[in-house]
Amino acid sequence: MSSLEGNFFRVHNIEQPTLVIASDDDPLLPKENAYMLEKLLPNVILEMIEGGGHAFVMTRPEETAMIVNPFLLKSLNNEKLALVA
Length: 85
Description:
Strand content: 15-25%
Distance between the termini: 23 Å
Helix content: 25-40%
Structural class: alpha/beta
């Protein structure tokens, strides 16, 4: 088992609000990984970018920012947050 696989089984221990952003057509990271994280994380928000590919942060920066910014603004309320992209 790789260290990545080992860590995957421990994500349920992350209690802080977590934002998972994925693309529905990423050729390297299947969208099923994001759905699995959604099931495993106790306090998760999943956002799927349609047609975003693997580098959606660079190819779709405005759309990504519209997802990330509201999530990060919650940190102003002193919440601990986690971001997975």
